[in-house]
Amino acid sequence: MTQTKTQVKNIAKKFVIANWKMHGNLKQNQALFEAYIQTLSGLKDTQVVVCVPYPYLAQAQSLLQGSGIAWGAQNMGKNEDGPFTGEVSATMLCDFGCEYVILGHSERATAYCESDENIAQKFMMAKDHGITPVLCVGETLIEREAGVMEMVVGKQLDTIIEMYGAEVFIDTVISYEPIWAIGTGLAATPDQAKAMHKFIRGKIASLNPDAAKSLKILYGGSVNPQNAVQLFVVQDIDGGLIGRCSLNAQEFEMICRATEV
Ligand code: PEP
């Protein structure tokens, strides 16, 4: 078992993480970064993070440095280095000032058949390099309709717990992302999200209360300016992971401000 370097950070109360997915170009990004800086640098209790495609990490670093807005990647290789064509390591992310990395996003898990074990190894690798992992968990619509969503999410967490212990969740971020809600315009209801967030925190708390306290649990899946407040006021929802609306500076600002009402 790899020993985690316990990173005790002065972690913000709330998080809003933009997932730009495979969108953008140098010119569009510059405009979006500038709009983010202008509208979001002064948030009091919320850490804003932008997860960009790998080629734009240098641009994020040069434009966001000193703004209070952090940046990160959308994936990472599980190995330190070596003959892994197309992969990007944790050390490489550190070279570009990345403080966060999204891991296990369902779009990757589905398209590239990523296993829970792989994701767990990446999670540990990120922690070992001082990068905060943003672990995505969530169920399909069929699993929700069958009522097995907690079992599914529980198993995703169990893989990490069995490999590295619950302590590894100290100062990390989990994003509950029901797969049926991502990019569909159909967000989970506050009650559905509340129940799952309570389940996740409770599960970690039963194993390591400190980890459960410091853990941030975000909701992701069709968050927009209309539903953000109702979701973010729910107990155990510590902010959001935002896809589509993060590409629109005005909508993203409204969502970020919804964490501070
Ligand atoms: C996501 O990709 O993580 C996501 C939540 O996307 P969207 O906000 O577009 O549903």
Describe the structure.
The structure is a single chain. 45% of the residues are buried. The protein has an eight-stranded parallel β-barrel, surrounded by five helices. The chain has eleven helices and eight strands. The protein has helices at residues 26-40, 57-64, 90-95, 106-111, 116-128, 141-145, 149-164, 190-207, 209-214, 228-232, 249-257, and strands at 14-19, 46-51, 70-73, 100-103, 132-137, 173-176, 216-220, 239-242. It is globular. The chain has 261 residues and is α/β, with parallel strands linked by helices. The N and C termini lie far apart (42 Å). Phosphoenolpyruvate (PEP) binds at residues 19, 177, 182-183, 220-223, 241-244.
Query: Percentage of helical residues?
Result: 40-55%
Ligand set: phosphoenolpyruvate
- Quaternary assembly: single chain
Structural class: alpha/beta
User: Roughly how many Å apart are the termini?
Assistant: 42 Å
Q: Which series of helices and strands comes N to C?
A: EHEHEHEHHEHHEHHEHEH
Q: Record the strand order, biggest sheet.
A: 1-2-3-4-5-6-7-8
Q: What share of the residues does DSSP label as strand, in percent? A: 5-15%
Please give a quick description of this structure:
By secondary structure, this protein is an alpha/beta fold. Helices cover 41% and strands 15% of the residues.
Layout of helices and strands:
Layout: E1 14-19, H1 26-40, E2 46-51, H2 57-64, E3 70-73, H3 90-95, E4 100-103, H4 106-111, H5 116-128, E5 132-137, H6 141-145, H7 149-164, E6 173-176, H8 190-207, H9 209-214, E7 216-220, H10 228-232, E8 239-242, H11 249-257
Parallel strand pairs: 1-2, 1-8, 2-3, 3-4, 4-5, 5-6, 6-7, 7-8
Bound molecules: phosphoenolpyruvate (PEP).
